Amino acid sequence: MKVPGELNPGSRILLGPGPSDCHPRVLRAMSTPLLGHLDPEFLSLMEDVQAMLRAVFQTDSKMTLPISGTGSAAMEAAVANLIEPGEVAVVGVHGVFGGRIAAMVERAGGRAVKVEAPWGSPLDPEDIERALKGDGAGAKLVAAVHAETSTGVLQPLAPLARLAQQHGALFLADTVTSLGGHPVDLKGWHVDVAFSGSQKCLGVPPGIAPLTFNERAMEVVSKRKEPCRSWYLDLGMIGSYWGTERVYHHTAPITMIYALYEGLRVVLEEGLESRWERHRENHVALVAGLEAMGFQMNVEREGERLWTLNAVTVPNGIDEAKVRKHLLEQHGIEIGGGLGPLKGKIWRIGLMGYSSQRHNVFAVLAALEEALHEQGRKQSPGAGVAAALESYRG
Fold it and tell me: What does the alpha-carbon distance between residue 59 and residue 82 come to, in Å, rounded to a whole number?
């Protein structure tokens, strides 16, 4: 065959639902020469990664490590290690990813009791409680998505974790789109198990996924009646490699762990509180600009909106796919469309990690104005950028 040309992808500003742009230091770290996955220097680096993950998750759980795979691999590792055939899990579903957790429960042989909310609203704790007293009585697990990427909803976790504890269940949280961009306090909120992804607010390429189990959860895992159905995601075996035993399980993705190491260093050098505030400030400015342009957000209440993933309702008469195409081809800006029942109805604008910067807020607002002008939508020139600027000044 003819050998393809040299790799030279176009330049993009990644403002979709993920991946986000990587910090230059992360990209440089990925060019570091490889070590063996049992090399003493690499084993020491692994310990540093675990310590930094604990700091970002705000947990002291010993079983905190990165799974070799994307966030969905960590999601499946969490479910597969907790659920055995016939066991019940109460799963909050108000978007795509709650539904994915429920599907994984059923593939593990469990029974998922779904508690649903509209795609644009958080779960009601009273609905979770009714499920735990009704069809989900005796549940082993309660699961919810902290940051629902498909809708832009921020879900309070502490009330749900309290309910799980009161009913003798473990609590599992999906923090894929919140870790590093929103406050995540697993110990303070009494979250037993949580997972995340690298490619969102941590500013690392996709392919490595933080996962943490507290002692309460690990005690449940240790008492399983049968082995985890996934050999690759068996936490007992993976934990033996990441623990003091250093027992070989699989060849770790060395370069991705380098990237995660540097990404976590960037997060902690900035400081969690400062990083959260940067994400909040840029979100508020973007929303101010969008509203000045006549847009409405998919999530009605400000306190229920993600800072990291902004879901914008597409106005009537606007070809949403054509707008996204214009942004990509004319400005090199990627934003996302809707999923499931929101397909064609929203844009998803991510401001995550290294991508959450003021100049990106101004760039996407200006590009949207131009794209909408091409479709005949009249509005005050520069209104979005001006409103965002005023937000920063105020």
Answer: 19
